[in-house]
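Hi, here's the filled form for the chain we discussed.

Project: internal
Contact: R.S.
Residues: 282
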Amino acid sequence: MAKSTKHIILLRSEPTAAQTDYTRPFISAGFSPSYVPALAKHPSPSPRSSNNSLSELPSPQLHDLLTTRIDSFSSLIITSARGITALSDALTSCDDVELAARWRTLPLWVVGPATASAARQSGFETVLGSEAGSAAELGDRIVSTFNTAPTDSRPMLFLAGDKARVDLPTRLERGGISLEQVTVYVTLANPTLEADLSACLSAIDVETGAGLWFAFFSPSGVDAALEAVKHATEGKGFNVKLASIGPTTSGRLREVAEVVSAEATRPAPDALVHAILDASTS
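And the returned structure, exactly as it came back:
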């Protein structure tokens, strides 16, 4: 009998060198991992745009903020590696090298090790909060820190995607912390998602497969990919199980009446691997 294989499809783009690697931990745990991006992320369109086209360059809003308001903020908040990329790209395009360097000296609060790694790779000197598993948890950590130490009275700057939830701003507001939020990228469904899933599944032998896991990495990823996953696997004989990178994503899956078989205790590859292994043996 052929040896059974454990398969997992990670509904995200394959990590770059600057991001946290999922491939090696899953291979070490006996899985065959594949990547199918659920989302396509683009720079935020100009607020002055008269249509729905997407700008290829940093939006004028972000560019103007970076060139004129370095002294307006006490620190930065970015909760995803894509947000780091948007800011880094904007700073790279800035003509004033010294000004760009000053922005990179501001304390930067992030969610999870992948965002922290991207921030350090982009040259930010003080990266905080990487242990937080969600934006809500990061908000609680910031409030706790500000309540126990003298703090700068200037507002924090939150560079977010268009799908950002209200959890973090709400917690900071309740904690008396001033915040300014700017959208720096928009999130759309991957236009080739169904074709990508079909191609990925065609390479999996259902006769020898010991189960098929799908890992979701954000609520917007659930909204973009869940129906496509159902359609692609329907009637194929797969034993499908769903995993999530954390409680916020799990919450969205449960909102649409899906069973979450494994949830990472923090947004990191090893935590996701351990959660799935535990669920597989329980």
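Let me know if anything looks off before we file it.
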